[in-house]
Amino acid sequence: MWNTWRVETTYDRHQVAEFLQTLHLQYDYQSDVTVEVRQGERIVATGSLRGSVLQCFGVASELQGEGHSNKIVDHLTQVAFERGHTRIFVFTSPENVSIFRSMGFRVLASTAWAALLESGFPSIDDYLNSIARHVVSTTGRIGGLVMNCNPFTLGHQYLAEHAANYCDQVFILVVEEDRSVFPYNVRLDLVRKGVCHLGNVTVLSSGPYAVSLATFPSYFSAEDISHAKAGASIDATIYAKHIAKTLGVKTRYVGTEPYSPVTAVYNATMQTVFREYNMEITEIPLLEVDGKAVSASLVREALRIDDLGLLAKLVPESTYSFLISESASGIVSALKKTRSRH
C-alpha cells in the first residue's frame, strides 16, 4: 500500500536524509515542507519546499518513471501557491532536467553539478526586460557587482568606487532575498545613498536570480561547503548567461574572501564559469581599518557591543546616520539576539 505523508518530526526528517543518502543526495534540514511516499514502512520517494524552491527530490531507483515525482511536485506546488508564490523554482540534479521540463518547467541553468528551472510568473524574461531599460550603452567597459550589504560598509563603497574608476558604466545588483537581519528595502536604500556620488553606477535589484534561495541556497546556510559548488555554478551561470548578457557586463568585481569558505568557493567557481562566457572576474583586496578587513559582519559585531567608535570607522556617513537612528532600533535589537551569519 502506498501512502503520502507530510514529514513533521525530526526523526522523520532524519529518515528522509538517510533515504536520500542512498541515492547520493543530501537533505536540506532548513526545508519548510517535506513530503514522502512510503511503501509500507519504507520511504520510496520524497521532495521538499523551501520558500518558492522545490528541492531534495529522490525516488527509489526501481520505482523511477512511475509518476511519483509528478505527484510530489503537484502537491508541493499547490502548497507554494497557497503560500503566495506565483513563481516556482526547481533545484535538482542535471539528470532530472527532462523530468521537470515535461511538467512545464523552463531551464534557467544546467551545469555538471546542478540544474535550476522555473515555472509561473513573473519569469526571468520579465526580470531581464526590467533591467534592460537601465542600459545606457553597450559600448565601453561595463562592470558588475552583486552585493548583499548587510549593511552597506566602507568596504562595499570601496569596491564600487574601484569598479567605477575602471568602467564606463557599473551595475550593482542588491540581493533581494530577505534572509538577512537588515531587510531588503533598507539594504537597497543604504546602497543607493552610499554610491550616489558615483555618476556611472546604477543600483538594481537582483530579483530571485542572484544569490537567492533558488540560485545559491548555501549562501544562507551555516557555511554549507558540501552544496556550495553546485549552487555557485548555477548562480554564476545565470549571471553570465542571462544578466550580464542583458546589461553588457564583461567584468564582475568581487572582494577577496579571507573569512567565508562558502564565498571563497563562489569566487573560484565564477572564475571557471565566466571563462565559458568570455567574461572575467576581478578580485579586489578588501579595504582594511586598523589592520582588519572591513566587512558587514564586523559592523554587526560593533553594533552588538555598542562600539560606536569602531562603527564610525567601518561605514559611510549615510549608513552610520541610519544605524544610530530610531528607524534602526528594531533591527539592532534583533541583531543583538542572534549570532546568525546574516
Structure notes:
The protein is of the alpha/beta class and 342 residues long. The N and C termini lie far apart (45 Å). It is globular and about 65 Å long. The strands form three sheets. It has a seven-stranded mixed beta sheet, with helices on both faces. The longest helix has 23 residues, at 225-247. Helices cover 39% and strands 23% of the residues. The relative contact order is 0.10. The protein contains twelve helices and 14 strands. The protein has two domains: 2-121, Gcn5-related N-acetyltransferase (GNAT) (Aminopeptidase, 3-Layer(aba) Sandwich); 126-335, HUPs (Rossmann fold, 3-Layer(aba) Sandwich).
Kindly summarize this structure in a few lines:
With 342 residues, this protein is α/β, with parallel strands linked by helices.
Going by CATH, the architecture of the largest domain would be 3-Layer(aba) Sandwich
How many runs of DSSP E, i.e. beta strands?
14
Q: What's the total helix number?
A: 12
Distance separating the two termini: 45 Å
Q: Determine the mean pLDDT.
A: 92
Q: What is the CATH homologous superfamily assignment of the largest domain?
A: HUPs
Helical residues, percent: 25-40%
Task: Bin the strand percentage.
Answer: 15-25%
Oligomeric form: single chain
CATH class of the largest domain: Alpha Beta
Order of helices and strands: EHEEEHEHEEHEHEHEHEHEEEHHHH
Largest sheet at a glance? Answer: 7 strands, mixed
Q: Give the class from helix and strand content and strand pairing.
A: alpha/beta
Poorly predicted regions are none
The largest beta-sheet arranges its strands as 1-2-3-4-5-7-6
Enter the CATH topology name of the largest domain. Rossmann fold
